[in-house]
Amino acid sequence: MKIIVGLGNPGKPYEHTRHNIGFDVIDALAEKWGAPLTNSKFNGMYATVHRPEGKVLLVKPLTYMNLSGECVGPLMNYFDIDVEDLIVIYDDLDLETGKLRLRQKGSAGGHNGIKSLIQHLGTQEFNRIRVGVNRPPAGMKVADYVLSKFSKEDQAVVGEAIEKCVNAVEASLSNPFLDVMNRFNG
């Protein structure tokens, strides 16, 4: 079984903000696969999807970003999912808006959701898809920036990025993640 986790914050005020790009990708996958996230466990919403490649769990932690590991760790234990079958999708300030960067391991890079996952999983070695949201303009606080919505100009680019993420996740179901990285990075 694979587990695809999109990071974000629950609630209407956070919908479609930069910090919630992970949730947006999970929503796009759920819609494409006809699998609404109607189940809940360990403070997260999820759907179990039966794909030709095997079972896939789509997950949105409802713990708020900084505590994402409190949902993902117990879910992975409950469903007996290995860390190599995890893909985490989240926002990245160090990438240009809409750019994707796939990695198999790495530090949290200042991202509190990833810090929480590393803490609860006991490893930095898990697959991830980072989606660029760019840096805030001069004088704007990072927290205010990531909790704001994308500009009209950025929305088309973000829509394309979400579509690319969906394609990368689908490719990862039947290909080694390294091959998917080579295909979708750059």
Automatic annotation (TrEMBL):
<comment type="function">
    <text>Catalyzes the release of premature peptidyl moieties from peptidyl-tRNA molecules trapped in stalled 50S ribosomal subunits, and thus maintains levels of free tRNAs and 50S ribosomes.</text>
</comment>
<feature type="binding site">
    <location>
        <position position="66"/>
    </location>
    <ligand>
        <name>tRNA</name>
    </ligand>
</feature>
<protein>
    <recommendedName>
        <fullName>Peptidyl-tRNA hydrolase</fullName>
        <ecNumber>3.1.1.29</ecNumber>
    </recommendedName>
</protein>
<comment type="similarity">
    <text>Belongs to the PTH family.</text>
</comment>
<dbReference type="InterPro" id="IPR001328">
    <property type="entry name" value="Pept_tRNA_hydro"/>
</dbReference>
<comment type="function">
    <text>Hydrolyzes ribosome-free peptidyl-tRNAs (with 1 or more amino acids incorporated), which drop off the ribosome during protein synthesis, or as a result of ribosome stalling.</text>
</comment>
<comment type="subunit">
    <text>Monomer.</text>
</comment>
<dbReference type="GO" id="GO:0004045">
    <property type="term" value="F:peptidyl-tRNA hydrolase activity"/>
</dbReference>
<feature type="site" description="Stabilizes the basic form of H active site to accept a proton">
    <location>
        <position position="91"/>
    </location>
</feature>
<keyword id="KW-0378">Hydrolase</keyword>
<feature type="site" description="Discriminates between blocked and unblocked aminoacyl-tRNA">
    <location>
        <position position="9"/>
    </location>
</feature>
<feature type="binding site">
    <location>
        <position position="64"/>
    </location>
    <ligand>
        <name>tRNA</name>
    </ligand>
</feature>
<feature type="binding site">
    <location>
        <position position="14"/>
    </location>
    <ligand>
        <name>tRNA</name>
    </ligand>
</feature>
<keyword id="KW-0694">RNA-binding</keyword>
<feature type="binding site">
    <location>
        <position position="112"/>
    </location>
    <ligand>
        <name>tRNA</name>
    </ligand>
</feature>
<dbReference type="InterPro" id="IPR018171">
    <property type="entry name" value="Pept_tRNA_hydro_CS"/>
</dbReference>
<keyword id="KW-0963">Cytoplasm</keyword>
<dbReference type="InterPro" id="IPR036416">
    <property type="entry name" value="Pept_tRNA_hydro_sf"/>
</dbReference>
<feature type="active site" description="Proton acceptor">
    <location>
        <position position="19"/>
    </location>
</feature>
<keyword id="KW-0820">tRNA-binding</keyword>
<dbReference type="Pfam" id="PF01195">
    <property type="entry name" value="Pept_tRNA_hydro"/>
</dbReference>
